[in-house]
Structure formats: C-alpha cells, structure tokens
Amino acid sequence: MFFKAALLLFLSLTFKISVCGDMPEETFSNLKSSLDAKQYDEAMGLCEKIVGEKRTQEEIWYAKYTMGNIQHFRGDWDRALQYYLDAYES
Asked: Beta-carbon neighbour count of residue 37 at 10 Å?
C-alpha cells in the first residue's frame, strides 16, 4: 500500500499528473475549445475555475488575461481593464 501511494506521488510530481480531479491540460484544452467556439460564458467559468484552484502563477496570469480578452470581445472595456490589471498584478 505504501509503495502504491509513493509511486502515485512520484508520478504526480514528476509528470504533473493529477491523481484526483481533471488534469490542467484538459481544462486548458476545454478553455481553448470554448474560446474558438465563442462560448464566452463557458470560457469565463473555466477561467474562474483555474484562478480558484492552486495553479502556477503563469496559469493564473493566463486565465485572468483571458478573462480580460473575453470582456474585451463583449465590449465591456471597464471590466476588461480590471481583468488585465488583475493579471498584471498576479
């Protein structure tokens, strides 16, 4: 039992494999698909999920920047600017 747990920990740290929950690559793939399909509500939800999880600084920056882009596409310049500033400060 200990060996299996140690192996899962080693693999998750070495290859960034998530052993509980979806993998970051899957979330970012879904985000890209949502943006390509102009499904901005779904994309905002995925970005909020990324920001709310323990992710790398780069991933959080990208999610906040993408949220700014989504607001820019919607024509909401004030909110877009706020998200861009949040990304800059993260």
From this structure: 10
Maximum C-alpha span of the chain: 55
Domain with 77, as residue range(s), is 23-89
Q: What is the number of structural domains in the chain?
A: 1
* CATH of residue 77: 1.25.40.10
In order, the DSSP letters of 21-48 are S--HHHHHHHHHHHHHTT-HHHHHHHHH
Confidence of residue 64 (pLDDT cuts 50, 70, 90): very high
The pTM for the full model equals: 0.70
